[in-house]
Amino acid sequence: MMKLQILGCHAATPRSNSFATSQILEIGGKMMLIDCAEGTQIQLRRQKVKFSRIKHIFISHLHGDHFFGLIGLLNTFSLHGRKEELHVFGPKGIKEIILLQQKYGKAWTSYPLRFHELDKKTPELIFEDSTLSVETIPLDHRVYTNGFLFREKPKDRTLLVEKAEAYDIDIAYYKSIKKGKDITLSNGKVIPNEELTEPPEDPKSYAFCSDTRYQPEMAKQLKDVHFLYHESTFLEKHSDLCEKTKHSTAKEAAVIAKKSNVKELILGHFSARYKNREKYREEAEMIFADVSLASDRKVFEWK
Amino acid sequence: MMKLQILGCHAATPRSNSFATSQILEIGGKMMLIDCAEGTQIQLRRQKVKFSRIKHIFISHLHGDHFFGLIGLLNTFSLHGRKEELHVFGPKGIKEIILLQQKYGKAWTSYPLRFHELDKKTPELIFEDSTLSVETIPLDHRVYTNGFLFREKPKDRTLLVEKAEAYDIDIAYYKSIKKGKDITLSNGKVIPNEELTEPPEDPKSYAFCSDTRYQPEMAKQLKDVHFLYHESTFLEKHSDLCEKTKHSTAKEAAVIAKKSNVKELILGHFSARYKNREKYREEAEMIFADVSLASDRKVFEWK
Q1: Per the CB < 8 Å rule, is A69 touching B93?
Q2: Interface pTM (ipTM) of the complex?
């Protein structure tokens, strides 16, 4: 199961009732916070996310609508008396900004805060454990920016316990059976693994790409990724603004989705200039079939 | 007319539906923003405050629940294409924090941004024009902190135009009549000013005191101020926490109000530990009669 909660998906600034970019990705049993605009902690509370479950935060770039909520969230963790280590991945400079504010506020964290500053311009593996990996997706924006690609690792097969018991297989073999091994019984009979297990869920992957100008070369890295969030600040009629501000249109996002052969495209980072967001979907669907629009507090769950 | 809009009045952090300290004081025709916690720009939009009317921002201290919304608001002003000068008054360090974030975001302001950094420990006149003055109120908190005392200047008397016209007084004399002068008609008859004018509204004053431990000596500076906002983070049963965190109880705020002889006390900076806020009022009213509780989006208007 992979679950994505959109905390905010608007460009530039928070509004009366909507928020700038932030997301919670639940993957491999972990809660990964991606970007952290002003008000993210408000949205986390509304979504009833347990703050202590967040141990990794990924910041794409140092524009306000992607990170002005970080200092407040780090501070709130301390006010809650947090003890667990927290890892923050983000562009070089992020540590200096956070520590300067903590210095003037005499408000050091109650927990170990580890910064992982990024400055490479090629994809880089920045996190890996037994359940998932995270790599950067270098983006092209007005300041140094990365997207992030989250990949689940292959899971064990599901053991059919009643079958194993029927063959009187000792529990000591269960771990290797889940890894795919056949079993030779004491009478010499070989039980093929397929009879004792069911295949696991396919490992899922999620790519977060915001903010960036259209970068067709990105499709290679995103090849066969399952779910792609790609910014679509503008519609085609404002493509001149994309050039100037280094953003993408909904159509361009759809071209990336098609070239990458993803299963589903989620559009976000909406400009306030368009009252009707369906226009984004209409433009994208001319290129790619499975398009969703992000909206604040929307939840995507992939079994 | 003096008008106070509470944008947020909670201690420590924003919550699902409430905000930390920020206020808009309308005085002398100006909109003064006092403190700027995370989400202040959201509350300003909800209150329909025209952003361009804010030309002066006063920050009491560099704790997050009083200033983490400042960088976002300054940034939003730029996104709106603001050209008017903006003045920010706050503790030494505030300029470094803001400029560092603007540097990494390559997001300099579209308007002249003037910092007035404070480091004195005695009351200081920090703003004055023809309609009002602002002085600091040195507070005693865990970091360098000031309250702010806003005083309207005496206004002109209100001219009774129909009376002036009945005496055929030339319009050239109106300005001096409003200043209180009597008029000698061409026939030598003296018209006393009281016959031509009504007295002006009394000049009003407002003191903002958050956050601070109980400081009885403050009452001298606040003598006869009309309206006092004083923090009351705790109730008396938690007065030990006041000592530790350098905050005040509702009762202590009321003692200050009584000693200062203010007309009205507004309590705020509420701790999340108390579900029933009326307890704050009950404690304060044992000492001082006219007590109000702040609440988000509450408006006080004083004619």
Answers
A1: no
A2: 0.92
